[in-house]
Amino acid sequence: MQSADCHRTYSDFCAQDKTRTCTSLRTPAPQAGVSTNFTTWAIECAKVKQFFIFTTPDNSFFLLLYAIRLYLQTVLASYLAMNDLAEKVRNLSPYKSVYIAIGGVSRSGKTFLSEMLGGVLPDSVIIHQDTYIPDKKDIPLIRDHLDWERPEAIDWEAFINAIHEAGEKFRYVIVEGLMVYRDEYLNHLYDECIFISLSKEVFLKRKREDLRWGAEPEWYIEHIWESHLSYGALPSTIQKPVIVNGEEDFNIFKILKQLNLHKNNNH
Known about the structure:
Elements: H1 10-17, H2 38-47, H3 60-91, E1 98-104, H4 110-120, E2 124-128, E3 141-142, E4 145-146, H5 156-169, E5 172-177, H6 184-189, E6 192-197, H7 200-209, H8 218-232, E7 242-245, H9 252-259, H10 261-265
Parallel strand pairs: 1-5, 1-6, 2-5, 6-7
Antiparallel strand pairs: 3-4
Helix pairs in contact: 2-3, 7-8
């Protein structure tokens, strides 16, 4: 690649240097990879009558100066091109993004575990599924209660777009939510899959104690569990998932070892 200066006509050059006459033809650049002899190059330009006519008694000195100028322009253009290429290479990662999904019923510890992973994995980001919701008018009702436990309560297009955008900027993309395994396309995208298991008994106890949005009626808590079995369970198509007991303290080092991220680092 050559700079714009390398493609200026000799009329432009002469106008700047105030020489008397010149043609508007361009001087052919030396071939890449060939050692350039300044004087030879300049003489060849003169032979094909593409050089301007000097009015001084001895043109050789000016001919050499002009050849040097053209050579330096070529060197500068090559340097700029290489510098631009190096910058692009520095911005490219030799690795692909690693997508890690975390699923499980409400109150199983998905958000907590995602934050633990995000704290130890460099260049990582967490995508929380429940932040991508449609207009409330598009969410179905159950007994006049917004049914947050159904797939319709997720803006899937925005959710998937957010995952793709994160994958373009971050090395590790951690995705957590009640229904992270509901979409088959995403199931193929995930590199590692974590599922936090929780017994119904422990779920009921924790959910009854969860007052973040006020006390939920018993029937709705039961509905959450049943919806989890319908929409949030781990599908059989997921190969080698990492099953974590949500009733025990999370051992982040054990989980990292089970994820086998070293394998993904070599992609």
